[in-house]
Amino acid sequence: MFESASLPHVMTKTEFEDAEARLREKLLDAQFEVADRKNAAVMVLVNGADGVGKGEIVNRLYDWLDDHFVETLSYGRPTDEERARPGAWRYWRDVPAKGRIGLVLGSWHHRLLRNRALGRLGRSAYEKALEESIRAEEMLRHEGVHLLKIWLHMDFAESRRRLKKLRQGNGALRRPAVVEWDEFDSARDIAKLAEAALEMIERTSTGDAPWAVVPAADPLYRDAAVGDLLLQTLTRAATDAPPSPRTLAIAAPANDLPKPSLVGALDLTQAADPASYSQELRALQQRLTEATTAKSFDSRGLVIVFEGNDAAGKGGAIRRVREALDPRRFRVHGVSAPTDEERARPYLWRFWRNVPRRGDVAIFDRSWYGRVLVERVEGFAATEDWMRAYQEINDFERELHDNGYVVMKFWLAISADEQLRRFQDREAKPFKRYKLTPEDWRNREKWALYEAAMTDMVDRTSSRHAPWTLVEANDKKFARLKTLKTIVDRLGTNGKA
Question: For the segment 99-132, what is each residue's pLDDT rounded down to a tens digit?
């Protein structure tokens, strides 16, 4: 595979200067178009053996581009902060905003290659990680992030020889070079690395994010080739168009056939015993305190999602959970409409950056499920976007689970009559009026659409590793007890899920 990359690829200095003059003008034009339109971001993933000129490529691109819209994203050994979270967290944290270009060294591919070549990932785990990488890259592309994945090709022995020439006797480098594979010093290790790299490129080169294998023996040809690839990527990014408003269809039922409602199957008349409520509440809160302060919980994390009808009592349920937690070890994230900063990135970005450290708890009052609820019903997302979001959300939650997090999701359900009663109660009490907005009244008119969207959501995203719990919430006390009991039962008193 990639046999042509081993053939001689050489440019004379004159040929390079002619190509550079054309490239610089076109690159700047395309870059400014992307920056002005702010409809796409570009990530240039620079990969290859040490000694092939990865740092030189990055410096060359800074020379050719306006650096106001460029940032270097470099990843080495994980920091303590990064080790306390899933491996993908640090990459999601740094996704550039639309209109910007990120030059990436040490990407997620580097991490997979390193762990595979060192024997830390077996065959099945490596294949699973490659598939997850493909799906993540597909999502980024659909969310307006263009990936230019470059492998700078050179025989590993030749690249090592070049790197060796750069080193002085004391190991210092005569000029800067990106050294990422210093652990691999034997011929056997290098052979494993080369084999894993070839497999990774073959398996993860897709229509959404293909690999570009660039011959790197001649620095002039290498730089011109990368510049041309970036120009192609920027040109595509500049012409990326958001879905036409005409495609943003409101989520009406697909046909006239009746569809069972999950909420309709609940017994909303269930209520807590007022006489024993306080005692039961204190006992459950104590169990939660014990579970989250146990030493074994330090290696885990807890993510709790609260969704439900307006006025269903999410705030009250969250309060009872919050009272049982060490205030230094949890955060409640109230989720509303995305800000301009958040809209400039993939929709999961704002949730990824709030993934807690292991040993901590994150509570989301509304969540990433807005993509398949509000955005679906209100027509803020195209049908193909919210349809693909089910798999993207499942992948997100599976990655949290695989990294030691317990994901719990609650839907607090009330009847339309109970919601109306609570709305009227809020209107009548001055200190509660702030909780009621015109949007709440408007959403009542779409009750059936939200109920259908909720049923689809639970059907498609209630997985073994992150199941939904439907909570009968007409009686607030019953809802609080059921929520707490579900949490402590899944955690157990020793902090294990």
Answer: 999 999 999 999 999 899 888 889 899 999 999 9
* Closest residue by Cα to residue 493 from 297, 245, 324, 203: 297
**Can you give the pLDDT at residue 291?**
96
pTM to 2 decimals? Answer: 0.86
- Give the pLDDT of residue 178: 82
The length of the chain, given as a count of residues: 497
pLDDT attached to residue 437: 74
Q: Is the dihedral of CA 471, 477, 483, 486 positive or negative?
A: negative
User: Phi and psi dihedrals of 93, rounded to 5?
Assistant: -55, -35
pLDDT in tens, 176-203: 778 888 888 777 888 888 888 888 998 8
Q: What are the domain boundaries of the chain?
A: 3-238, 249-491
Q: What is the dihedral of CA 402, 403, 405, 407, to 10 degrees?
A: -40
Query: 488 and 421 in contact (C-beta within 8 Å)?
Result: no
* Alpha-carbon distances of 192 from 103, 164, 197, rounded to whole Å: 27, 20, 9
Domain 249-491 in the same topology as domain 3-238? yes
Paired with 361 in beta bridges are 302, 330
Report CA-CA distances (Å) from 374 to 241, 242, 439, 462: 23, 19, 12, 19
Q: Considering the domain 249-491 in this protein, what is its CATH number? A: 3.40.50.300
Which CATH fold would you assign to the domain 3-238?
Answer: Rossmann fold (3.40.50)
Question: Which SS3 state, helix, strand or coil, does residue 471 take?
Answer: strand
Cα–Cα distance, 399 to 390 (Å, whole number): 14
C-alpha to C-alpha distance for 472 and 176, rounded to whole angstroms: 62
In this structure, what DSSP letter does residue 411 have? E
